[in-house]
Every structure is written in structure tokens, then in C-alpha cells.
Amino acid sequence: MKQIRIGCIADDFTGGSDAASFLKKGGLKTLLYNGTPKTPLPDTFSGGAVVIALKIRTAAREQALTEAKEAFNWLRANGTDQYYFKYCSTFDSTPAGNIGPVTDLILDALEETGTILCPALPVNGRQVKDGRLYVNGVPLDQSSMKDHPLTPMKDSRIDRLMAPQGTYRPVVLPTNRMTPEEIRAVLDTQKQNGETCYLIPDYENDADAEKLISCFGHLRFLTGGSGLLEGLAGRAAALSDNSPAAEAPAKKITLLLAGSCSVATRGQIKHFLDHGGRGIFADPEKLRNGRLAEDDLLAFILAEDGPVLVYTSDSPENIKKQPKNACCRIPELLENTLASLAYKTLAAGCTRLICAGGETSGAITKKLGYNAYDIGESIAPGVPLLTPLNAPHVRLVLKSGNFGQEDFFHRAVKAVSR
Length: 418
Prior knowledge:
The chain has helices at about 15-25, 60-75, 100-110, 160, 180-195, 205-215, 230-235, 265-275, 285-290, 295-300, 315-320, 325, 330-345, 360-370, 410-415, and strands at about 5-10, 30-35, 50-55, 80-85, 115-120, 125-130, 130-135, 140, 170-175, 195-200, 220-225, 255-260, 280, 305-310, 350-355, 370-380, 385-390, 395-400. The protein is an alpha/beta fold. The protein is globular and about 65 Å long. Mean pLDDT is about 90; it is low at about 240-250. It is about 35% helix and about 20% strand.
């Protein structure tokens, strides 16, 4: 039997935890690594899923390809059966982005003639119809993603987003108007013709997922958001969940850190504070000019007895007001500050940590030295409870900025406290 039934490469950490949560929910024992492991898969692990979370969504192309190749080679060396490239359900990628190049790297390495582009995650409001990606019923390029500071999405057509960055031809496949037999006929024809292409199916609801897995689940390599992963895991499940339970938190402080500026995260911050949560705004400009120090924030955290939120999240309008010469330095300053706060708070005895934002979560887990996790319950679709293998007493929740319900922080606090 293969050691790894499904090997997933994610383009950021919260995307990796998102993928891992659905693989776990689908019935596979799941390990999540922060970066490519330097050692082989443990001998005790066999037949489950492995997710390798990278930090390549907005990285330079050469760096992204180098890291993706290293992750792929590790998965292949450890006997992976099926591969999955997980990117954001809003297809975050500029024309010079990395979704196309990484997809091509894996396609070519496996000598496969095609894959699917399936970013949809209907449970979180991401749907694809006739090749167009919708966010809560709104075309992607009319949603808040159009103003994303790093990957502003100016089109909602996946084929047009993919064309300038991929080598092969994107083909919109209106699967909701096709029978499974017609879909399989397209695959057969494509294979007979030897043409490599990216197929873009419809995916609007759970019934669509079942149909897509029935038609495409046999492919050795698939790409997309996490919408198909639960069903794929269910198809491949071989072992029951034997994840060890984490020890109870040793201290009452639960640290919440929010670095995402997404509409969802800002709404979650407001809800948390409006409903009695304690929090402090780590003003980026004050941190930059020294009017607010990291020690001030740490003192605020350690003075609390319960959940406490530190957030740098701000509106796009306020971000644009920052001095132009500071904009390039502020993201790194904020990531380093929040990572340092997490490290010092856990060193003080806190064992419960909740982070919002992909870049933020990546910086924090790197600082803490966590690179492999047991996957627990899902707090929201795509957001699982994590137990670091090298710190089994710690409970982590790491979410993508756009994920989670309005009361997500309250839900997460309850989950890490159980």
C-alpha cells in the first residue's frame, strides 16, 4: 500500500490547514507540515494524507517553483498515490502569478495530460459556473477581492486568469449541463489526442462535488481550493482517526492575533469586541515610528485573564493613507511583531493561540518552530484545530483572512478551551 494516499501542496499555511481540515473530515489520518520536511515520513504513518504548506502565493516565480519542486519530490519519494495543488478559493493570482507555473511543474513531472482548476468552496460562498468564479453570489472582480493589496482580482473568468500564467490551454467545461458519460468522453478524447489542458468544471453545491469526484477523482493530479478534498479523502480513506488528544491548556490566556485586512476578518474583529472581547489595535504607523512598542502590547496581553485580541487589521482606505515610503516595510514589521508576541506569550505559559491571516499565520508558526500537526475538529469550513506534533500541549487555530463566520473568534476560543 502507498504510504500517502493524498499528498497536497498548499501555497500558504492557512490554505494548508484549510485543506488538512477537509482531508481529516473525509476520514483520512492527516499530517500538516509547515514547509517541506527534512526527514522521511514517520514509519508509523501509512495510508493517510499529508499536506505541505509553503509560502509561495506571492513569492517570486523562481522561488515558488524551487519550493514546490522540493515539496513534490518529497511527496513522491514517500510514496504518494494522488497529488493535489491547493490554492485560494478566490484564485488569488496576478497574470504573473504562480498557480500556472506550479500546476505545470507537477503536470510535467507526472507526465499527465491534464488536470482540473477547481477553486470553488460552496460552503464558504465560492462557486464556479460556466468558468466564472463567484464570491457570495458576486463575480470575483466585483467582490472585495478586487482591492486586494497583493493580488487584486480584476477578472472572474478562470480561463482568462490562467491563460497568461499557464503553458497549456484552459477549457471551460459546463459540467452542470453534461452527463457523467459526456464528461468522461471529453477526458478520453483529450487523452487520445495527447493534448494537455486545464479543465474548468462547474461547482455550485455538494451534489456537484459528488459528480466531479465521480468523473475526475481518478486523476493522479488535481488542483483547486479545498472543496473537493473531503470527498476525495472519503474515496481514499483507509485508516480510522487515531489522533492523540492535546493536553488541556495550562493557562487561562487565549491569544488571538489578527493581521488580515479582509472584510471577513475585520467583521470578526468588530463582532468579538462588540460582544465583550478584550482587544488592542496595534496601529502600524505607531509601531513604525516608535509611539507603540512591542513590550506595550505584551504587557496588555499578560495582564488579561481570558481571551485577548491583538489586531493590525485595517481598512484599505486607511492603509492607502500610510506614507508611501513606509508601505513596503510595514507588512514585515507587523508580521515580525505578531510572531514575537506569540512566541513570548507561549513562553509565559499560554497554550492556546488563534491567528487570522495567511501571512500572519505563516510568520507565527515559523517563529514558534512548528512544522507538523495533527488535525482536529473544524471550527469553520477549512479551519481546523491543530496540535503541533512537537508541542502536543498547545492548541492552534490558523485561518485564512476570508474564512469563518462573523462570530468565528468566539467559536475558536471555545474550541481551543475544550
